[in-house]
């Protein structure tokens, strides 16, 4: 059985005191050595180099310039890609609208060019009503249901089905009007749309609503005044007609701005069919109103 030796408390306390004194002396030497240093420590704000320490590194200099250059190039390339995609989107929408108008103008031209076809078209009122209702349903499907309007080839099927149905309706309506009135309405409509499209395209980065309305008023006034030379309407009808033309022009400016982008509101790159249908509807609505206004009492 082992016996634990007894320790002398006095000796233990003396040894502990000697160890404590030794560590206190070392701490005092370190403090004195630090306080007696010739170069005092002066902490500068983060990112600034201390002049007293020439070998001190600036934290900002640790940022890799090559990485910064790569990020800048990536941003520039993404901006160029976005502009190219938007320009391709605009070209595609304008091409589709031009194709739609070409189909409509060709069909209306055939009806007005041949009197026999013109007389036969007038007898198909129920067909014209059915085509209008069908076109209205297709337009709702295209605008409200996003997936079919973005999925190839169903988006093109919806687009050209809508165009053919509306074309027949426009041909039926045009069969009841004079050829000169139809040409005048077409000239006025295309002139207004072309002028507004040029304005929106060149001002899409600095587009303002007030300026757009002003341009719509000026453009509508010019082409509306030219078209009124072929019509015999009262002053009240002319004023009301001019106001309606301005309203249609504002809608056209807004829809073209959605197509061109450059603002907060813009169509997606996959919505080219929706953009074409919306702009085509604006053009057809303006044409029909101008046609009705030009015929006056007829």
Describe this structure in words.
- The protein has ten helices and no strands.
- By secondary structure, it is an all-alpha fold.
- Among the domains are: 98-176; 179-298.
- Helix 7 runs antiparallel to helix 8.
- The relative contact order is 0.09.
- Residues 1-13 and 29-44 have low confidence and may be disordered.
- Its main location: membrane.
Features:
10 helices; transmembrane; single chain; globular; membrane; disordered N terminus; mainly alpha; transmembrane helix; 298 residues; Bax_inhibitor_1-related
Q: How much strand content do the residues show?
A: under 5%
Question: Gap between N and C termini, in Å?
Answer: 134 Å
The secondary-structure element order is HHHHHHHHHH
Summed up, the helix count is: 10
Main pleated-sheet profile: none
Average pLDDT, rounded to a whole number, is: 73
Radius of gyration: 40 Å
Backbone shape: globular
Structural class: mainly alpha
The helix content is over 70%
- Structure summary, number of beta strands: 0
Catalogue the unreliable spans: 1-13, 29-44
Family: Belongs to the BI1 family.
Keywords: Membrane, Transmembrane, Transmembrane helix
Subcellular location: Membrane
Main location: membrane
